[in-house]
Amino acid sequence: MYSPGYIHQRAKLQESLARLDDDGGAACPKMVVFDLDYTLWPAWVDTHVTPPLKRAPPTSINRVADRHGEALSFFPHVPAILLHLKDKGIKIGVASRTSAPSAARQALTGLVLEDTRKGKKPGEEVKSIALFDYQEIYPGSKLTHLKRLHADSGIAYEDMIFFDDEHRNSEVGKLGVLFVLVGHPGLDLGTFEKGIREWRQLRQARAEEGHAGTNGTLHDHRQDSDGE
After folding, report:
1. What ranges do the domains of the chain cover?
2. Closest CA to 67 of 47, 80, 49
3. Is 138 in a helix, a strand, or coil?
4. Which of 9, 39, 189, 211 is the least crowded, having the fewest Cβ atoms under 10 Å away?
5. In what order do the strands lie in the sheet with 54-55?
6. Catalytic annotation present for 37
7. Which of 21, 22, 23, 37 is catalytic?
8. Which spans does this entry mark as compositional bias, Basic and acidic residues (predicted)?
9. What is the pLDDT of residues 149-178, one digit of tens each?
10. Exposed e or buried b for every residue in 197-207, given b needs 16+ CB within 10 A?
């Protein structure tokens, strides 16, 4: 079903993701959030495709087609990244401002992937929509999307990363979410690794800041005690 070249490339990608687990003490965010258009796939689903979107042909992997036969797939590294996150037990969220939420959900439902997670048998498949624990798909500021993800999941903003291709959406940083800008063409392993490492560095900096603040408070308290 898969060419030797595809299998080799997938194995190399999985090796790279596994190595990332050993970097920086293997600390991981509790949720990774993705935009959809031009972040996970190369289109605006409210502009470039015409619903309904369905898996086509019926046995295809990572491919849907619209009413006119126009194809849509995830960027090449996206399936492995999503499956890696699920293997790690990390929650996955969507924050999309598309004006065609039904088309977006049709695409996520139709984009079927080979399920390479641990414990799965060769050839098992999974609908990509099943990999996303939380979905906020509607027009408006991404601040609203991230606030709802936080409220629904109970996960702190500081434990989230948000990947998006539009710089204006970096406003979510004011909440404490780490924003990672996705370049063209879309999310790839390099950008994903960069985001994870930035989050780990930020986490370490916050921990050191908190430790310094605690020490400062204790020091002041001791000074007050000595003065008494």
Report:
1. 4-227
2. 49
3. coil
4. 211
5. 54-55, 64-65, 71-72
6. yes
7. 37
8. 218-228
9. 999 999 999 999 999 999 999 999 999 999
10. eebbeebeeee
Q: Report the residue count for the chain.
A: 228
- Tell me the whole-structure pTM to 2 decimals: 0.87
Among residues 35, 115, 164, 165, which one is catalytic? 35
35 tagged catalytic: yes
Cα–chain center distance at 48 = 23
Residues 48-65 have pLDDT tens digits of 999 999 999 999 999 999
Sequence-ordered list of residues with C-beta below 8 angstroms from that of 148, at least 6 positions apart, any chain: 136
Round to whole Å and give the CA distance between 183 and 70: 24
Is the CATH number 3.40.50.1000 carried by domain 4-227?
yes
Contacts of 123 (CB under 8 A, 6+ apart): 1, 114
**Residues contacting 188, CB < 8 A, separation 6+:** 75, 76, 77
